[in-house]
Each structure stands twice: as structure tokens, then as C-alpha cells.
Design brief:
This protein has twelve helices and 17 strands. The strands form four sheets. The chain has an eight-stranded mixed β-sheet, sandwiched between helices. Strands 12-14-17-15 form a four-stranded antiparallel β-sheet. A three-stranded antiparallel β-sheet has the order 9-8-13, with no helix packed on it. The protein starts with a helix and ends in a 7-residue tail after the last strand. The protein has about 375 residues and is of the alpha/beta class. The protein folds into two domains: about 120 residues, Aspartate Aminotransferase, domain 1; about 250 residues, Aspartate Aminotransferase, domain 2 (3-Layer(aba) Sandwich). It is globular and about 60 Å long. It binds pyridoxal-5'-phosphate (PLP). Pyridoxal-5'-phosphate binds next to helix 4 and helix 5.
Amino acid sequence: MLEKFLNFTRDLYDPTASGKFIPLHEPRISQREKDLVQDCIDSTFISSVGEYVGKFEKMISEYTNIPFAIATTNGTSALHLSLVALGVGQGDLVLAQALSFIATANPIAYCGASPVFIDSAKDNLGMCPEKLEDFLKKETMINAQGVCVHKASGRAIKVCIPMHVFGHPVKMDEIAAICEKHHIAVLEDAAEALGSFYKGQHVGRAGKLSIFSFNGNKIVTCGGGGMIVTSDPELAKRIKHLSTTAKVPHAWEFVHDEVGYNYRLPNLNAAFACAQMEKITEFVEDKRKTAESYRQFFASVGTRFIVEPANCRSNYWLNAIQLESLQERDEFLKASNAKGVMARPIWKLLPTLPMYKGSISTSLENASFYEARIVNIPSSVRSC
Ligand SMILES: Cc1ncc(COP(=O)(O)O)c(C=O)c1O
């Protein structure tokens, strides 16, 4: 299979057979990005005040059809700010996936809270609704103030962070309904999922808040950047205030009314992002074509290719395959990388990392199964 895969991927990404290195995901940058960044430089508004930040927010809001968007320095700061705005503080617990990128968990720790790790679904790389419900039913109660509390530790659980792995939407309806029943707010980590749709609507609508990342490896990038989206005008207002050092508007005085953050995206990055956002539809179409080619290829060699869940339209941010065993995975990774075709394993389970060892978690058999077998393969946009 490996030789066939290498030839197939070379044909996709290196049709002139130049023998070049094929990365996992590289950005596509055109003259338009250069023009808008130059325009931003010429305006001298290169920091977080400037028209491109507002334009970028409007583009995201229109594209996702979510009324409010607040730009941040990156996806991690977007998650941190969201948790603060949802009232997560010292000693609280936050529900998260065991199989996720580290940036889903770290902002929980920044708040002085601790993650509770939930298993992946059997048929979906995202959070398992059954395991989530089972944990909440058996191990939590609603206290007199209407807050969900972990019975054994007495710690409050205010937020759940489902994550759309590689752009494939999680089982959002089920997760949102369970969280609502247990008085838990949903914060969607849609960092990887700009351009993905769940039951006909862009992801990010089910949660009270949702975030996107515009890191260099994402479908749309601005070097580094993030966005929080919400339908709640009060939350949007508070988040914008918190992201700009909680400065109270005044013609000259420096008045700050709470501990704020310097998390607003610079105009320079936003200019770049606006140029990229003009191509989001093309980028998604291109990636979906690549995914379909991979799907057909892997069907022909008998390897499972991860496809979009039912009722979803995924952006196929990173293509992924499932190998038979840890040994086969390691052999594949070694050989593919040695031949200049970049491949990467899925993340290590977060509760196995030193800072999250001993965290509360459900049983993690599905996440462990995927951890040993899932591999990402080259996924950059090809034709734009
Ligand atoms: C699932 C997930 N959450 C959060 C982040 C954090 O985003 P950023 O790198 O922009 O801080 C990323 C990606 O980088 C991610 O993949």
C-alpha cells in the first residue's frame, strides 16, 4: 500500500515529478494578500486599531451566518477569553475531549480550572455523546444554585468544549442537548472547521460561543489569529471589552474596569485574513476534491479513509486514514516521511501528558484505538 500511496500523493501534489518535499499543509498566498497588507502598512494602522479587523469580523460573521464575531490574536486566546466570559474560574472543571490538540486543554488550566476528559465516539473522531451523558448522569448533580457539580470533588462544571477533529463536525445536536439538560454551556472548538457544515448550517451555531483559528496551517490563515463567534450580543460586547484590556472608552483617560487581556488581532494580520477569506469557497471545494480522490484511492487498496459524518459537509482540513495497528502506523510514518511525503500521527491522548496526568476522565477505549492508528496525510489546497 505504501508505495502506491507515495506514487498517488506525488501525482496529486507534484505532477511534474520534481521530487519536491510534500508538506502536510501549506498556505496558499497570492498577490491579493500582499496588496492588502501593503495597504495596511501604508495606512500606518498596523496594530489592533484599523479597518481590516472589523472587515475580517464581518466576513466571518457573514460566511458563518453567526451574528457576532470578535477577532483575537490566535485560537488559544479565543478559547481562553471564551472560558473567562463563561465564568470559568479557579477550581472549576471543564469537559473536553481526550483526543484533541493541546490548545483545547491549556486555556482551561490558564483559568485555574481542570479538564475532565471524555472519550471519542466509535464512529466519529469527536466527543462521544453517550460517554458524556453517562458521566454526567452518574458523577454529577445540579446544586441549589442550578450549577452542575461533580459529586466526588464538589467542583462546578460550567462548560463543555467539543472539538471538530480535522474539520469533521462532532455530534453537535446530541452533545448540546445533554449539556443543556445539565446546565452546562457549550463552547465549540471549531479551530479546524472553518468551512464545515452540520445539518446545513455552518458549525459554531450550537454553542453559546465558538472559536476558529487562523494559524499558518489552517484552511484560512493570517499567520496567527483567532475568532470568537456568538449569537449573544451581551457576551459579544463583554468579550470585545475583555480582549482590549477592558478599557472604558474615553477621549484621553486610561480607565480599565476589570482585569482585561491584550488579545485583539492586529490590523496587519486582519488584512492578510481578508484576502484569504475572499477564497474560502474555492479552498473548501479544492480540499473536498482532494479528499474524494484520496477516498477512491484508499477504497481501492482496502484502507479506511476518514470521511465526513452523515448530514455534514466537511472542509476536510486534514485528510486522515486509519491503519491496522500501532506497528503499521509507525512503519507508515517512518517510510512516508523518509520519502519526503509528510505524514503525522493524531495527537497523544491529553491525559497521558505530564500536566494532565491524573485528570478525571471517562474510559477512553475509542480514543486510545484512534490514537494508535490515525495518520494525517498531505492536505494543502492544490489549485488556488
Ligand atoms: C483544535 C484546536 N484548538 C485550538 C487551536 C489553537 O489555535 P491557535 O494555534 O490559533 O492558537 C488549534 C490549532 O492550532 C486547534 O487545532
